[in-house]
Structures are given as C-alpha cells and as structure tokens.
Amino acid sequence: MVLAIVALLGFSLGALYEGILASNPSPSPTPITTATTSSATPAVPDTRKKELQDLESGYLQILQAEPNNQDALEGLVDTRSQMVTLKLKPLTEVIDPLEKLVKLYPTEPQYRLLLAQTQQRTGNQEAADENYRTLLAAASPGNLDVLQGYISSLVQQKRQDVAITLLETTLKNAPQANQIKPNSIDTVAVQLLLGQVYTSQKQYDQAVSLYDQLIAVNAQDFRPVYGKAIALRQQGKAQEANSLFQTAEKLAPDDFKPQIKAVASSPPSATVSPSASPTAKP
C-alpha cells in the first residue's frame, strides 16, 4: 500500500533534489507533494480496468460486512491508488479508507503519514498540516518522513519563515534528543533540508554557509556540494557552480551521476525545491 501511494503521488516538486540528496535509490514512503501522472496516459485496457473495478467492488463488499477489516481497507487504498494513476478515479477517493485506517489504528504512523501526503496533494493543506503536527508530537520531532512533508506543505503555502524556524528548532533540540534516544534526529539530513529552504528563499549566504559547514565535516559527502552548487548558480555564479557540480558528480554514487549531470545542464530556475528527502546517508 505504501509503495502504491508513493507511486501515485510522485516526486515532481522535489524531483531535482529527491533521490540525490537522499542518496537512496530505493522507493520509500517519503512525504510527497505533486502527482507526476502524464496527461498522455495510455488508454487503459478493458481487462485491466475491469480487474481493478472488480477488486474495488470486492473490497467494498467485505467492508459492508466488516467495516473495520484492516486488510480490506488497505486493499481498497491500494486498488484505488492504481485506479487514480490510470485516471480511472480522482485522488480524493483514496482519502476515505485512509481516514478510517487512521481512526482504527491511531498509533500506526504510516497511515496518518499517507493520509497527510494525500490531503496535501489534493489541496487540503490545513488537514495535512494538522496530521503532520500530530505525527511530530506523537513520534519524534526528527522523523524525517514527517518533517519533509510538513516543510514541503509550509513552503507550498509560502510560509517559509515557519519552515525555517521549525528546522532550526529541530537542530537546536537535536543534542538533547539524541542523548535521550540515540540517532533519533539525523542532524545532517535536517541541515540539508534547511539549506534547500534557505535557497528557495534566496537566503544564499545562509545556505552556502550551512553547506560549507557540512563539507568541512565530511568532504566526501556529495550532497552539500551539490546543494551549494545550486545555491551559487541561483546567485548567477555559474562558473563556481559548474565546478561544484563536477565535484558532486565525481563524489556521488553511480546511481545519481546522471541526475546531477541533468540538473547541472538544466535552467537555474528549475533547481530550487525545498521538498527533498535527505533521509539517508551516502
């Protein structure tokens, strides 16, 4: 179900950062913000359409008899997610079974996270933000999946000041949190996300300073080099930026070299996105 939702919602808002700064090529339930389904989606074969419709009908019949059947609710979410991808249903139809799962299993964070992501995608920012805040309060303030989604939502609403304050507060509280529960907050990942928000706000001095600090700590980590390259290019410092793009490409795992090269050759305005998922170490 998680992978179905991720595939459904896509990564387009953070496409130029996602994966690269995360340094994690495998699919993960990362907070997502925009759908990537093309308007030129091929026609759905009648057999596939009927298969999905039959699955949906079957799950609905089970839920009529057993409204709280967890497997049926998950199956309905998965099936409808596939139908949305194929443009057979609107994304809003995924919300109802997700809300039921959240109500039935309030201590299961993944259901609430998927609900928040879907609400965010459908434009219900207020409900999404409430779920993100609930998750951060109930779990850990350093939960990167949740933090990523909430920051992305705040930036979408042009509330970058709130996003920056949240990330700076998270970093300020990280030493104590990590002392109580080791590795509960990945400070490097949070700093990378903060650097992206700074760049999106054109606070280039803060972004570059932050990236320089990270490079000084680990010169082999390509992510801050890549982030700094983007910040410099946004300032019009193309020559310095190109040099850093080349360095980042050399340091990066092979999986990410083509993406870095593509970003380096893309228009500068296309490279600013505060919705990356810097959740894994290189």
Tell me about this structure:
There is one protein chain. By secondary structure, the protein is an all-alpha fold. It has a domain of 140 residues: Tetratricopeptide repeat domain (Serine Threonine Protein Phosphatase 5, Tetratricopeptide repeat), CATH 1.25.40. Helices cover 63% and strands 0% of the residues. Helix 3 runs antiparallel to helix 4 and helix 9 runs parallel beside helix 11. It is globular, with a radius of gyration of 20 Å.
What would you say about this model in short?
The chain has 282 residues and is mainly alpha-helical.
Low-confidence stretches: 1-39, 271-282
Rg over CA atoms, rounded to whole Å, is 20 Å
- CATH class descriptor of the domain at 2-141: Mainly Alpha
Q: What is the number of E strands?
A: 0
The percentage helix is 55-70%
Topology as a string of helices (H) and strands (E): HHHHHHHHHHHHH
Which short descriptors sum up this protein?
single chain, 282 residues, mainly alpha, Serine Threonine Protein Phosphatase 5, Tetratricopeptide repeat, 13 helices, disordered N terminus, disordered C terminus
Task: Indicate the topology.
Blueprint (H helix, E strand, L loop, with lengths): L1 H8 L36 H20 L4 H16 L9 H10 L4 H13 L3 H14 L5 H13 L3 H21 L6 H14 L3 H14 L4 H13 L3 H14 L5 H8 L18
Helix pairs in contact: 1-3, 2-3, 3-4, 4-5, 5-6, 5-7, 6-7, 7-8, 8-9, 9-10, 9-11, 10-11, 11-12, 12-13
